[in-house]
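Re: the 117-residue chain
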Amino acid sequence: QVQLVESGGGSVQSGGSLRLACAASGFIFGRNTMSWHRQVLGKEREWVSSIDGEGVSYYSDVVRGRFTISRDNAKNTLYLEMNSLKPEDTAVYYCKATLGIRGLDKWGQGTQVTVSS
């Protein structure tokens, strides 16, 4: 079955960097759009970035220029390099795979990122 396992979260100070990873299994990774979303407790989940099967990337306005999404299809792994982190980036970060013609979404369990001022 489809599995997405995030790692790399942690606590950093404002201005610091983190690199998240999402290990995928159970589907043909290289063919599908992969995304990162984040959620603060009590708020709606927010889209952060996506990368399609051609390697074209997309970013929300709040992270563009600071975050970089990438994928290693040989390792079935999605990454999110986060630089110049701000306290408002604090959230649980989720990896998402959008699968098949119907665009079925599968989610990982999330990894906590905490940025202190």
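The first strand starts at residue 3 and ends at 7.
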